[in-house]
Amino acid sequence: MAALRGVSRLLTRRALNTAPKRGYADEMSFTFAAGNQVFYDAQSVRQVDVPSFSGSFGILPKHVPTLAVLKPGVVTVFENDGNVKKIFVSSGTVTINEDSSVQVLAEEAAPVENIDISAAREILSKAQGELSSAATEQARAEASIAIEVGEALVKAAE
């Protein structure tokens, strides 16, 4: 038994000594694209806030590597010059890498200032109507997703 503990300690020490050391950057390279547009292409930014199913969270340089799914909502980008950009996303992913680079890939995205509130309300109303008339489980699921996106779209536009 003592021999096993010795081997275990040796393996643990060896693993710790050979484990790659994570470096931290002082700035964050940010890429943000959707099927319809590239918003940022490896540009340096101060901070990014993203809506996630585990809760909204902020990303700063030196953030721990993460992979998350975006929920419908607003991605807020704090640029180095002090400007703040708000972009609505319907869904997508965010990847935070060890080198402090961040990629947001959205299914659909649009700057918040381009959202027409009456069109957003119409999308929500149509989705609610589809839910009430849905005959299959798949149709109900699709309508529920459309409602979630519509509600987030209206909230972003208000």
UniProtKB/TrEMBL annotation:
Domain annotation F1F0-ATP synthase delta subunit C-terminal: ranges: 116-156
Domain of life: Eukaryota
Keywords: Acetylation, ATP synthesis, CF(1), Hydrogen ion transport, Ion transport, Membrane, Mitochondrion, Mitochondrion inner membrane, Transit peptide, Transport
Family membership: Belongs to the ATPase epsilon chain family.
Function description: Subunit delta, of the mitochondrial membrane ATP synthase complex (F(1)F(0) ATP synthase or Complex V) that produces ATP from ADP in the presence of a proton gradient across the membrane which is generated by electron transport complexes of the respiratory chain. ATP synthase complex consist of a soluble F(1) head domain - the catalytic core - and a membrane F(1) domain - the membrane proton channel. These two domains are linked by a central stalk rotating inside the F(1) region and a stationary peripheral stalk.
NCBIfam families in the cross-refs: ATP_synt_epsi
Name listed for the protein in its UniProt record: ATP synthase F(1) complex subunit delta, mitochondrial
Species of provenance: Tribolium castaneum
